[in-house]
């Protein structure tokens, strides 16, 4: 439950959830089980109403696509020696749980699609640390545009995001980006699950191609993890020490 804020709507029989439209929860929207229970069922029904007539067009088999992409990337020279598709006796095993978050922008019918990869590396009796990777590319788009032609544009956007997220995930999990407690950033803009801009404190993990990598820390925070930010996607400035 810590992966999702209360009040989200899940497209039935899919790994696609809808968020951003919730009201009344305030700060509870940022957390999972710590959120505001009273408002949850009302919010979930509101989300269902927003997409009820286009749910089939919002379906995306992110699990199958993630397996296909990860296998293809791992077959290349960069990761061939770092990972295998078959678990090795006594070696670490990484599990990946992919899902999609369609986040409505408040007071509009525009949607920001995010791909999320929840990963964990376990070794022996050590269950390992969970790291989530979030990727959103492009501006928010009208729901009608994303769902026309059986969701062709949505599938195109999610496929591109998934490719980026898989590469960043494999890089970080094979040779982790440096985590410097002093490399703090102030971030302002739209984040996964939340329908209005937020100001939040993150940590600079460097870059991948022309993407900034910003990590939000906090196990119960629904957008906690590595956010892969394209140029101009968020307002990012070095944190000012007080």
Structural account:
The protein is of the alpha+beta class and 242 residues long. The protein contains three helices and eleven strands, in the order E-E-H-H-E-E-E-E-H-E-E-E-E-E. The protein has helices at residues 37-51, 62-74, 143-174; strands at 9-10, 16-19, 93-104, 110-122, 130-136, 141-142, 184-189, 198-208, 211-216, 225-229, 235-238. Strands 1, 2, 3, 4, 5, 6, 7, 8, 9, 10 and 11 form an eleven-stranded mixed β-sheet that branches. A hairpin with a 5-residue loop joins strand 1 (9-10) and strand 2. It is globular. It starts with 8 loop residues before the first strand and ends with a strand.
> Helix segment count?
3
- Compute the CA-based radius of gyration: 18 Å
Average pLDDT confidence is: 86
N-to-C series of helices and strands: EEHHEEEEHEEEEE
* Multimerization status: single chain
Strand content: 25-35%
Tell how many strands the DSSP assignment holds: 11
Question: Shape, please?
Answer: globular
What structural category characterises the helix and strand content?
Answer: alpha+beta
- Our measurement of the CA-to-CA distance between the termini, rounded to an integer number of angstroms, reads 35 Å
* Main sheet summary: 11 strands, mixed
Ranges with pLDDT <50 over ≥5 residues? 33-42
Helix content: 10-25%
